[in-house]
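Side project, low priority. Logging it here so it doesn't get lost.
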Amino acid sequence: MFHSLTILATPSLAARGSFFEAIGGLLRDTLTLTNGEPPDTLQPLPAYDFVIIGAGTAGCVLANRLTEVENFNVLLVEAGGQEQMFMDIPVLATMLQFTDANWNYYTEPQKAGCMGMRAGRCAWPRGKVVGGSSVLHSMMHTRGNKKDYDRWAAAGNPGWDYQSVLNYFKRLENMKIPELARDKKFHSTEGEMTIQYPSWRTPLSEAFLKAGVETGGKIIDYNGEKQIGYSIIQFTMNNGTRMSASKAFLHPIKHRKNLHIVKMAHVKRILIDPWSKRAYGVEYDKYRKTYKVLATKEVILSAGAINSPQILMISGVGPKQHLTEKNITTIVDLPVGYNLQDHWALGGLTFVINTTDSIRSERVATADNIIEYFSYHTGPLSAPSGTEALAFIDTKHPNNPDGYPDLELLFVGGSLVSQPTYKNAFAISDYVYDKVYGPIENRDTWMVFPMLLLPESKGRILLKDKNPYQKPLIYANYFSDRGHDQKVILHGIRKIIQLSKTKAFQKFGSKLHDIPLPNCAHHKFNSDQYWYCAMKTLTNTIYHHCCTNKMGPSTDPESVVDPRLKVHGVTGLRVVDASIMPHVPAAHTNAPTMMIAEKAADLIKEDWNFPTKRYQR
């Protein structure tokens, strides 16, 4: 490690390009993670009790919980490779989108939304690595509101109400924020997933909290009893490093003999008997060789909200008309790929300040900061991509402290100009970026994403063809509702501008950046019509794609899986990931996805007559 620090501090490193390119390249070359993660299984068995497709957030939790039963043997199949040590550095979160750990998806052009992005397509990064999207995301841990889960249960999904799922949220959690850990009703210190506040953040984050209080808000624990208010973000971190699902749930069990994992294995299809309609195995490619592995009990699909519907449809489970168009024989006709939901926001709502208190890459990229991080895991490198604080707001009932938030304000102690990777990460067109943000590239700034939490617009995943290597078509359909979604985001914009004018932010001389977007300049700047145009131009996904294999009873014509997550009409097949959500919760979806996998593991154990009580934590 000290040898690596010496290299980092040398002038020759700076000549290689930006800090993010330099440190990423160095660590990729010299600090490959060689221990901790379960090894690649070179000779898998011909059959396992359970074959899990996808070693992402859900797959890692499932593999851990199912192999608690010594009688179960489990194969975990992952398209990506092993997690690397440089992926643990929080400030590099955005840069990870430019590695081969990303599936590199883009939405199709649409009538409204993403108009300022290259070719009118929003980037939708998804994890292609052991740990999945928990390796790429910004580590924010939010559970959602109790009404989210009561709503799931009311739609015909018994056992998914808030009181039931709260136990699963607590089971996985190791809360290391002392004042929150004391609240035993809502928190636990016994789980594998460590939750911390960041050790370093800008003074602007404190201004955000003070501005919230100035305007009538409260400081809250949003993973506690109530969600309306302001808070520093709770992160899935341990000692200043990323805590991915793999590190939390796979590393501790790497020696279990009943768990095998195959990496760099691209699943081609689930093997389903067309007559009995039973899933009996999985076919995958690894290094240009095709393998078949059988599942004597179940195939569990945990490939995420984009890949899971793709794999189902290629395997013959999906909308019959669409499958027929792609020359796929339909085994079971189900609405796979519909109901696609996401959280999105106006990107680039920027405020310029007259101090040097924001996070900027050139100030992060100092030898002192690098040495501090590798010595103590503190300092600016331990800041998760600049995201620092948030607020949950109920726009319909703003004075109800126990409301149902439909808006999140996600505070960043910098902006699009703070890191060179931001422009490309959000796929913003060069023309728009240069025109609007070029003039302030060297300024200190902050921004807030006004994020829609309960969208009414829904999209769809479709196959381009039946080739499993062909990326599916993603129709986000942002702003396709009748105006609800844009009004919530507008409410957020107005609230953010109000916060910027408080004493807390005026201490930094905060001023709204007012160079208009070129295609919106015909509207008066700061008018409602201008902001409606702006949010459809710089439309930023918050990466919470879900709901494409909706959970519901068999009487629900929109559902794909039942409340025990079994695929309707197919035996031996479950889906366990964010795709089963009936509605996107008012949360960043990593925590709810872990909860889903925790509960699913209990359901599976129950169905195979293994009592779950002895596995309770």
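Brief comment: Residues 590-607 form the longest helix (18 residues).
Revisit when time allows.
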